[in-house]
From TrEMBL:
Its EC number is 2.3.1.199. The lineage of its organism: Eukaryota, Metazoa, Ecdysozoa, Arthropoda, Hexapoda. GO terms for cellular component: endoplasmic reticulum membrane. This is Elongation of very long chain fatty acids protein. GO terms for molecular function: fatty acid elongase activity. It catalyses: a very-long-chain acyl-CoA + malonyl-CoA + H(+) = a very-long-chain 3-oxoacyl-CoA + CO2 + CoA. GO terms for biological process: fatty acid elongation, monounsaturated fatty acid; fatty acid elongation, polyunsaturated fatty acid; fatty acid elongation, saturated fatty acid; sphingolipid biosynthetic process; very long-chain fatty acid biosynthetic process. It comes from Anopheles coluzzii (African malaria mosquito).
Length: 267
């Protein structure tokens, strides 16, 4: 038993201390994984079990004003991060390589900039968990689907490990796409809170935009993974990005077909 514990500690130290990017180790939630694991465990238990039980005998909370403020905050943060990345990568530096962009692990200005952008993106994914909490408090438990919970949970986990091992580099395209889509998505939520007559045509096109995002990300990670053996971006994370993009694409495609193709035929 002692040998097993020692081996577990050695593995933990190897991957959480020796191999990780230590530049972010001092930042909140970016050091030890245990606070984040506790946060996610609380989130899952709360939105899947404790929350629905708490709301069972209560009326839905009217959170329209709170959610409108939240949506505007999300639009602003996502837009700022999106514009910052795009301007820096394609206007200021102008050296982004779509076939293979390596990470900058140095402590110079650009290296630290990419690290802090990765950290900011991670915190933004933590903030996204509030979406599900709002659903529960408004008694919209049907919205707390497998796709919704899986996507939110994995985005937090993925952005955390991305920050630890591959902050920036080839994976920065995920941040570009995700912040763009979320800026549009939260703007849609804000507008739709005033009535469906203002937002009815958005929803279908927003889903198509999400599908396009994952198709492009599958190619973005897949091409260097299978066709560029010289790429120095870690192949393991290329594979993770490729498989995750395909899996989420499948889930969103299933949602799109059921929501728009099948329903249209039934009508």
């Amino acid at each position: 038993m002692t040998l097993v514990l020692e081996r577990m500690y050695d593995v933990y130290r190897e991957y959480m201390v020796e191999r990780r990017d230590m530049r972010s180790a001092h930042l909140p939630l970016a050091g030890s994984p245990w606070p984040l694991m506790l946060l996610l465990a609380t989130y899952l238990y709360g939105v899947l079990h404790a929350g629905p039980r708490f709301m069972a005998q209560r009326k839905a909370y009217d959170l329209r004003k709170v959610i409108r403020v939240y949506n505007i905050v999300q639009v602003l943060i996502n837009s700022v991060i999106f514009l910052w990345i795009v301007i820096k990568m394609f206007v200021v530096y102008r050296d982004y390589n779509f076939s293979c962009q390596v990470c900058n692990y140095t402590s110079d200005y650009r290296g630290m900039e990419e690290m802090y952008l990765s950290y900011s993106y991670f915190l933004l994914k933590v903030l996204d968990l509030a979406d599900t909490v709002f659903f529960v408090l408004r008694k919209k438990q049907s919205h707390v689907s497998f796709l919704h919970v899986y996507h939110h949970t994995m985005m937090v986990i993925g952005s955390y490990f991305g920050m630890l091992y591959v902050p920036g580099g080839h994976a920065i395209m995920l941040g570009i796409w995700n912040t763009l889509v979320h800026a549009v998505m939260y703007l849609y939520y804000f507008v739709s809170s005033y009535g469906s007559q203002y937002s009815g045509w958005w929803k279908k096109h927003l889903t198509r935009m999400q599908l396009l995002q994952f198709v492009h990300l599958a190619f973005h990670f897949g091409i260097p993974l299978f066709f560029n053996r010289e790429c120095k971006f870690p192949r393991f994370w290329m594979g993770v990005g490729f498989l995750q993009a395909l899996f989420i694409l499948g889930l969103f495609m299933d949602f799109y077909i059921k929501s728009y193709v099948v329903k249209r035929k039934e009508q």
